[in-house]
């Protein structure tokens, strides 16, 4: 299989092209690296119809067969790790090491889902009735992925959906369709036709898919604004939804930390994937007594990290993934200049090819500045001073978002107690961004609805059915 050309959609197990196509750019060079099909409405209808046809027999297979298919998908991905790594870097921009880690994560998640069974709970009411609760498939799932982690966030939906006995129509972002199309091509060998359909398309395709009457459940990761639109589309037929949306995660650094070590860990917490990460640290609250030391360490470490084409050796940070986002982040930087915020690092954007924005660290901007309130989704980090714990917890929670956060202190108990006061779905103590297929992840407030991963995430791809029988 070539990873450099011939990208086809997968509809009913067959390679499918379209009369229209779209260009895919490498964000590090702005060169067109591929043309991919721009699905028509008829083709989407075909994909949904194929998924509907395939669903009953897929669900009727013994669970062990579906588990085996997930393992086979993991094997295929693992055996093409370097191909996917290179392709992911070319379409998304992230450094090879991060791309390889992303492929590895997909393999790991598939393998862990392949071990899962769905629980059946039983209750005898003592009056001659046995209540038996099963988790049954919902039907056809629309899996919609964004451009920051195109492979991970696709697999996080596809794996549980398939294991639970649903069939899927996967739609990648128009900015990063290549790895999803290749996964679809690869998995044709191990999945029956119609079980996993992969369609690529322009901006019209998402709404077509979420409004489609043949879709029963939507698994979506993207912005809060688009999440609202998805929820609106779902409402007409009460489709089930899981929404993983934006975040504005706070890190709270207490005065007793090892400053150099914490600054280095939090540099990556804030800037990995060039900060295009729903769980990136987007507000860094540092106690006033160590603020100057901490900012010096953070800036010094930032200067050692190379930004460039993710395919080049030694590069730690790649470009912003697309022009729209690049312009958005530049606008945030311009706003900081306009409003007189001091830059500890960065603040200008180089001319030339590629959507490169060097790391910007802002010196204690006001709480009501755009850089503090908005999800930057790019390397613009406000470093903020605080004085006491109640104050910083209040400021950290003063956000419409509630996705993640972290607390850093030598006093593990105190940090743990503060972590519990954050209104977020995920919070780390003295480290950051370790995720597990066995731990649920989801947002509070406007960061989402429902969770992904673990048994809780798997159950979101099921309906509950309670069967009541008579006990003789
Ligand atoms: O995301 P969208 P965009 C944030 C980030 C960024 C902003 C916009 O702040 O600046 O979102 O990025 C599909 N019905 N995040 O516009 O629109 C779309 O094709 C159904 C946060 O790229 O949310 C893509 O596949 N689907 C985020 C996916 O939704 C629709 C990750 C996400 O696109 C649709 C990415 C519609 N009406 C960006 N409109 C995170 N939380 O990780 C678009 N789509």
TrEMBL record:
GO terms for molecular function: oxidoreductase activity, acting on the aldehyde or oxo group of donors, NAD or NADP as acceptor. Belongs to the aldehyde dehydrogenase family. Keywords: Oxidoreductase. InterPro entries: Ald_DH/histidinol_DH, Ald_DH_C, Ald_DH_CS_GLU, Ald_DH_N, Aldehyde_DH_dom, LUC3-like. This is Aldehyde dehydrogenase. The keyword Oxidoreductase applies. The active site is at 244. Residues 19-466 form the Aldehyde dehydrogenase domain. The lineage of its organism: Bacteria, Pseudomonadati, Pseudomonadota, Betaproteobacteria, Burkholderiales. Pfam families: Aldedh. It comes from Bordetella genomosp. 4.
